[in-house]
Design brief:
Number of strands: 2
Strand content: under 5%
Order of helices and strands: HHHHEEHHHHHHHHHHHHHH
Number of domains: 3
Oligomer: single chain
Helix content: 40-55%
Shape: globular
Distance between the termini: 32 Å
Length: 432
């Protein structure tokens, strides 16, 4: 965990952001989670404390992990400014996409679910660094890790649940918010296609460029840049340019005549077909660009048509049932979600067409999780009681902050109700 920077004037710990000036810059959401860990409070509690300090009123239904604090909207602007003021760490907006809000539409920007690269998290841990969530992982167009060239994952390798990154009150980046398992322990990784790597690399180069921007790119300069590309590539004919990038001529007309802003996927289409780097496109820097000077990618591979109805393929359910039976006999316990991923079949189809075999896996997994939960609870009780005895021996008041320095987060993170367990230990030791 990063140590707070010495700054007695800041209301909150002045944690240093991770990865600034690189494609792997930390997201503001990750920073917020680490800040909560540093203060030994839940993220929900910290969000309400921040709101109270700056004079905001949050509704009872406020959902901190769904507010897109790392995006380009009002939430990102407000929270980055508030956290900068309270931590005295300047320009926390660089942990968001705010630099590009005038040149990129908000639609189709944020990922629908939390994803991560297991190898990045594993490397963080192995090299003694703090595991953290990368800003690129929250961008919908990024589906792979450009560094390790594998697809991002969204299912916990231990409990098989989605939204494992931060769908909880207490979050330690790198560990599952449901079961406490390390998110970097994924064994079966899917190699990334070159086209996916190109898109992730382009977005990474944009994130890398953020700290060096003299000023935020403007909508006017973007329109001039697109108009210049239309003129130099297709003699000023918007219809031909639209055909080139695989969009309707009405869309291009909306950009050039009505002042519309392209989405990030549209920007990637332009960059891929004009041979211009994405940062150069967004900042209007075409000084070194010439028509046909860059590499052109096939649109069909970069942007598969998701709306086109796929031809149903025959599934050998007899073979699938046999695979499920084999998985149910393995020494290692496999969830239905993990089985579906390995077999490349939707879990609902398994329950529909191989119900008996899927339920065997489900029951086996349920009993396994119950046993593991009981064992985790027992381990936590022993560790907490031992830590409390140490504190009493040393004449230190028993409290949550001191407990977290003595008990590994791998143990505390696997159970819920740590405060209740601490209270039970104090009562057992006769401490009021």
């Amino acid at each position: 965990m990063n140590h707070p920077l010495p700054n007695p004037r800041s209301t909150l710990h002045a944690l240093a952001p991770i990865g600034l000036g690189t494609p792997h810059v930390e997201s503001l959401l990750s920073y917020f989670c680490r800040l909560a860990v540093s203060h030994s409070v839940s993220v929900a509690a910290l969000s309400r404390q921040v709101a109270k300090t700056v004079g905001w009123e949050l509704s009872d239904k406020f959902d901190w992990h769904a507010s897109q604090v790392s995006g380009i909207g009002e939430a990102a602007n407000n929270w980055s400014a508030a956290l900068s003021a309270l931590t005295s760490v300047e320009r926390l907006d660089r942990l968001t996409l705010l630099s590009w809000r005038h040149v990129t539409a908000q639609s189709n920007l944020a990922a629908a679910c939390s994803r991560w690269c297991p190898q990045c998290l594993a490397e963080d841990l192995e090299t003694g660094k703090t595991p953290y969530f990368r800003l690129a992982w929250d961008v919908k167009a990024v589906t792979v890790c450009s560094k390790h060239k594998t697809q991002l994952v969204h299912v916990c390798p231990d409990c098989g649940r989605t939204n494992a990154r931060h769908n909880s009150a207490y979050v330690v980046p790198g560990w599952c918010a449901h079961c406490g398992g390390f998110l970097g322990n994924v064994i079966h990784l899917v190699p990334a296609r070159p086209e996916e790597i190109w898109k992730a690399s382009q977005v990474g180069s944009v994130l890398q460029a953020q700290p060096t921007l003299a000023s935020a790119p403007t909508r006017e300069l973007l329109h001039e840049t697109i108009g210049d590309l239309v003129t130099r590539l297709d003699n000023g004919k918007g219809a031909l340019f639209a055909r080139r990038i695989g969009l309707s001529k009405g869309t291009v007309h909306h950009w050039l005549k009505d002042g519309g802003i392209p989405t990030l996927p549209a920007h990637l289409r332009i960059a891929s077909q004009a041979g211009v780097a994405l940062p150069a496109l967004l900042t209007g820097n075409l000084k070194e660009w010439q028509p046909d000077s860059g590499e052109i990618y096939q649109l069909a591979l970069l942007f598969p048509d998701q709306t086109r109805r796929t031809v149903p393929h025959a599934v050998d359910w007899e073979r699938i049932r046999g695979e499920l039976v084999a998985l149910s006999k393995l020494p290692s316990i496999v969830s239905v979600s993990e089985a579906a991923r390995r077999l490349d079949i939707d879990a609902r189809q398994l329950y529909r067409n191989a119900n008996k075999e899927a339920r065997v896996l489900s029951e086996r997994w349920k009993h396994y999780m119950q046993r593991r939960g009981e064992q985790n609870l027992a381990n936590a009780r022993v560790a907490i009681e031992a830590a409390c005895r140490e504190m009493l021996t040393e004449g230190i008041a028993i409290n949550l902050r001191e407990l977290e320095t003595r008990v590994p987060k791998e143990i505390l993170g696997r159970v819920r109700g740590v405060i209740d367990l601490l209270q039970d230990a104090k009562e057992k030791l006769g401490v009021s």
